Amino acid sequence: MKKTITIALLLSCMAAAAQDAEQFRERYTKQVKAVGADGVGVEYILNSWEKAFPDDCDMLEARHDYYLAKSRSEEIKEKPSPRYLGQKPVLTLKDSLGRDVNYFVVPQFSDSLFRLSQEYIDKAIRLQPDALMYRFDKITALAAYEKDSPDMAATAMLDLIDYDASEHPSWTFRGESVSREKFEEAVQEYCYLFYKVGSANSYESFRILSERMLKLNPKSTLFMNNLGAYWQVARRDDKKAAKYYKKVLKLAPGDETAKANLAIIEKNKQKKK
Description:
By secondary structure, the protein is mainly alpha-helical.
């Protein structure tokens, strides 16, 4: 009887703790919706939440979001290219010679606050290594922080891919199971992020990630198309690009991406003739 009462009491305490944690989540979510991730009152809720539940991964993610938002500011900067970080200029003026002068909104970060955000999300990853959302939080933040040279973000993506290949984790995202197809689609989202930035370094990150995924899955038309795009756009080598697109069409004759890009290559070839 004593044992039964003890177990019942333990379950009751666990349920109460879960309820209390949920109350913190609700308060935090409501406050952020009203004032933003680093708005008035958010830090007070986070301090109380962390004191009560220091290993709550939702709290750790919220702390990451708070310090990331706190660390970020924006500046208007002149850039020589017509696009920067995949974006069009917010303003274009003419200089004395009539040439375009482009101005872009460029994110800036406080190193110390950004470092704090990374420490919190790293702890969440250690506590729940198979929860993709925390890993994606980290990589997305690194990509924003590094701007047109996403070396740390690419390294984190490679670590994620290698962990997946060696450990075969049961990935989850917001509590839902993640299929193999969905995992590859998520990797592709980051490949596209690096591709869209359009700098020499980001193109190389795009290539390296695509090659790693293709090595693990040699019949992936998704990453074959990526490498075709790399050679076609980043390196201006239509011959190498065409080889990848033709490989895609051997595996998937109806692939519209490969067809369209081969048509562009053929059109360019005819123009040169």
